[in-house]
Amino acid sequence: MRIHNIEDEKWLYQWIMNKPEVIDFLQLHLPLNALQTKGLKHDVIASAYGFPVKETLGSGEITHYFSEEYDKIIEYSEREFIYPQLYQKIISEGMVSRENLLEAIKKYQEEHEN
Fold first, then answer.
1. Which of 10, 13, 94, 96 could make a disulfide contact with 48, Cβ separation 3.0–4.6 Å?
2. pTM reported for the whole predicted model
3. How crowded is residue 105: how many other Cβ atoms within 10 Å of its Cβ?
4. Average pLDDT of the residues in 88-96
């Protein structure tokens, strides 16, 4: 409380525990992946939690823009920016199991081998 200049204990939960400023979802899952970053990607985490994965890279959205395929840009954005929903799912249901995470990594690697 001294470090963060919190004078009243009622603010401790609000400022420190309830509202983290930054959450790195990939680092959060390191313990489930033997503390290895290899294989931890946005689409792996999304898949492990049951969210849809992206079908294109962000750089592909430039082509969609100039082709006036705005629906594809919106679809990409909806699949990319899942962080509030992911955070709520982890808070309400807990983190995915190690087995499910490793299965999502394996599936991603198999689909992107070439």
1. 96
2. 0.71
3. 22
4. 93
